[in-house]
Specification:
- The chain is an alpha/beta fold.
- It contains 18 helices and 15 strands.
- The strands form four sheets. The protein has a seven-stranded mixed β-sheet with strand order 3-9-8-7-6-4-5, sandwiched between helices. A four-stranded antiparallel β-sheet has the order 10-12-15-14, covered by helices on one side. It has a two-stranded parallel sheet with strand order 1-13.
């Protein structure tokens, strides 16, 4: 009688002892690993796989990563793609985050053994990056920075703001609703397209908490328009809170219409607020930079505790500030000729594999609500639109954009070392 091969199905304890599953046990936990083993064993009992294939089947059934977020290759040409997590971290920031996953000296002075100011090293780096700021503070995002300023400086008082700067940010959140939630009252001045200094002058009163200046970074108003700059507003007898939004700390010649923190502080802004995960190229964070006594008021407000950032964010932010060659900067300044050469090499490889690939001009954009209307000249590989879905569902996920009935893979935001990965992904999607 022939022995039943199912008797050779490996036992659960034997499989768990294998180093590969032992490592997975540490990453995913016992329940996930045991479920993968049970399913593989059952497939062997049903004669769908051989007993020798139980271990490979269990390994293949495990998730690709411990967290539900999946890696994405951004081939859209949008540098700060909000749906893809905005700015990717630099290698230095990733290393800093990894180092900060254990115990750290985030609030501990190793010299004295006493408690120290939280995140002082990251704050020192931010202060050094913007010497015009008397002091700095960091919260968990740009909106939180504005909420903290409004709560600490204008609760039950008025915030004067131009109608043309009453913006709506992502996911339907509107500036006036955000600020009203703090207990402040908004005093709108000017018309939709024009505001003058006299509008602000007439609105300022003893009830005014501050004037809010917002850079309308995600849209443009053209034609018969006027706006009042920070330097003029700073001459009025109330604080000026200025939101640059994008996180640009210093002037950037590529983006002449984007305000920066250093310039607005020099022009007299009391506090400048910004995001960390946009043009700065760092983690999600809200930056507050300004006069020392005002920043101290914000830092000591009870709400600041609820909005504070964790050690991983502080580590990534400091590394970004101290080593500012970020993936965001590289993508913004990518050389058009090099983008074309890369696209041509990728297209030639794909044509040789049987894919219908050509090279076409492709303008990238900054994204993330920054520099609306600015085009970044580049090139992309044009493919049939039917490849979009299998590329999105592949591992790794590759996201391009559909334009004029074609799928475009723009390499601006793809590191050159990943061109081979993109090629393999397209070949797999074509098969």
């Amino acid at each position: 009688m022939t022995a039943d091969p199912r008797r050779h199905i490996p036992r659960t304890d034997t499989l768990l002892a294998d180093p590969r599953l032992s490592e997975a046990h540490q990453l995913f936990g016992a329940d996930v690993v045991k479920q993968a083993i049970r399913e593989a064993q059952q497939r062997a009992r049903d004669d769908r796989i051989k007993p020798a294939d139980v271990l490979p089947a269990a390994l293949a059934a495990l998730p690709p990563a411990p967290a539900p977020l999946s890696r994405v290759i951004n081939a859209t040409g949008v540098v700060l793609h909000t749906n893809l997590g905005r700015a990717p971290l630099s290698a230095a920031a990733v290393a800093a985050v990894t180092a900060a996953t254990g115990y750290t000296d985030i609030e501990y002075d190793v010299t004295t053994g006493a408690r120290a100011r939280r995140g002082r090293s990251a704050l020192d780096a931010l202060r050094a990056a913007v010497p015009d700021a008397g002091d700095v503070h960091v919260v968990n995002n740009g909106a939180a920075a504005l909420v903290l300023a409004a709560t600490a400086l204008a609760a039950r008082r008025e915030i004067v703001v131009a109608r043309s700067e009453m913006v709506e940010i992502g996911d339907g959140f509107r500036l006036h609703e955000l600020l009203a939630s703090t207990g402040a009252r908004l005093r709108e001045v000017g018309a939709t397209n024009r505001a003058h200094l006299r509008d602000y002058t007439e609105a300022v009163s003893p009830r005014t908490g501050f004037i809010l200046k917002v850079h309308p970074s995600n849209f443009r108003i053209e034609g018969f328009t006027s706006a009042v700059g920070v330097a003029e507003l700073a001459r009025l007898p109330v604080p000026v809170v200025a939101d640059i939004g994008s996180g640009l700390l210093r002037p950037e010649p590529l983006l002449p219409d984007e305000p920066d923190a250093a310039t607005w502080l020099r022009e007299g802004a009391t506090v400048v607020t910004a995001s960390g995960d946009k043009l700065l190229g760092g983690p999600q964070a809200g930056l507050l930079l300004g006069r020392q006594e005002v920043i101290e008021t914000l830092r000591r407000h009870p709400l600041a505790r609820a909005l504070r950032v964790d050690k991983l964010t502080l580590a990534a932010l400091e590394a970004t500030l101290r080593q500012p060659v970020t993936p965001t900067a590289l993508a913004l300044h990518a050389y058009e000729g090099e983008l074309r050469e890369r696209a041509e090499r990728l297209a030639a490889r794909l044509v040789a594999s049987g894919a219908a690939a050509t090279v076409t001009p492709s303008d990238g954009v900054v994204g993330g609500g920054s520099a609306p209307g600015l085009r970044l000249p580049g090139w992309a590989v044009r493919l049939p639109p039917g490849l979009a879905e299998p590329l999105r569902r592949g591992v790794p996920c590759v996201v391009g954009r559909i334009h004029d009935g074609h799928l475009l893979l723009d390499l601006r935001c793809v590191p050159p070392v990943e061109d081979e990965v993109v090629a393999q992904a397209v070949e797999c999607a074509c098969s």
